[in-house]
Design brief:
With 201 residues, the chain is mainly β. It has one domain. Helix content is 6%, strand content 43%. The protein has one helix and 14 strands. The chain starts with 19 loop residues before the first strand and ends in a 21-residue tail after the last strand.
């Protein structure tokens, strides 16, 4: 791979915003990455028969990538760190957070500019920290703070997503990913219609 630059960069328009809208978790080792024929920094496809589990987000979550480069070792890698804030503690989420912590999924990140990034391309992403907190004051977060980290040879690749619905992502090569959207997190232990565990007795 050549290290020579290929183009310059103009000052862009002031139309970019921060934050991320959603993340899509794909179980590790199930993808078959297809790169754009003219630009290997963009992914056109991830294979067939994939299922992605979408987590909808609002505020305080972010993707931060740190460049680690050493003249002593002659090596460079990119630390991809995804921080998620998930309000509300539920029985269903407890189970999924546990499974997430045990695994190392690939992650599609959709930002507020409708860019899609692929985190953990080769090695997956590990939960490296977080909290499950009730908060102290009434206005505190009762929910989950998660940190997922991946170390990769490249920054998180852009993904060519040409269409999106609640249950499907269509990628640049016309392959599709089945999306399992989030479900209501409220759990009634005995399915009592009053919504009070134990029937409110």
């Amino acid at each position: 791979m050549s290290c020579d630059l290929t183009q310059g960069r103009q000052r862009p328009c002031k139309d970019s915003v921060g934050g991320i809208k959603a993340v899509y978790f794909i179980n590790y080792g199930t993808t078959d990455v297809v790169y754009d024929a003219t630009n290997t920094d963009e992914i056109d496809g991830l294979g067939s028969g994939l299922t992605a589990y979408r987590y909808d987000l609002k505020g305080n979550s972010n993707l931060e990538q740190t460049i680690n480069s050493s003249t002593d070792t002659g090596g460079t890698f990119f630390e991809q760190v995804l921080t998620l804030v998930l309000p509300k503690l539920t029985l269903k989420d407890h189970k999924e957070i546990k499974l997430l912590s045990f695994g190392r999924p690939h992650i599609i990140v959709k930002d507020n500019n409708d860019n899609y990034f692929y985190v953990g391309n080769e090695h997956g992403a590990d939960v490296t920290g977080g909290t499950i907190s009730t908060g102290s004051a009434m206005g505190d977060l009762s929910g989950y703070n998660l940190t997922l980290s991946a170390q990769e040879r490249q920054p998180a690749n852009f993904i060519s997503v040409t269409a999106e619905t609640d249950i499907q992502l269509t990628l640049g090569d016309a392959s599709t990913i089945t999306v399992t959207p989030g479900v209501a997190s409220d759990v009634d232990v005995d399915d009592d219609p009053s919504g009070i565990p134990g029937g409110g007795n």
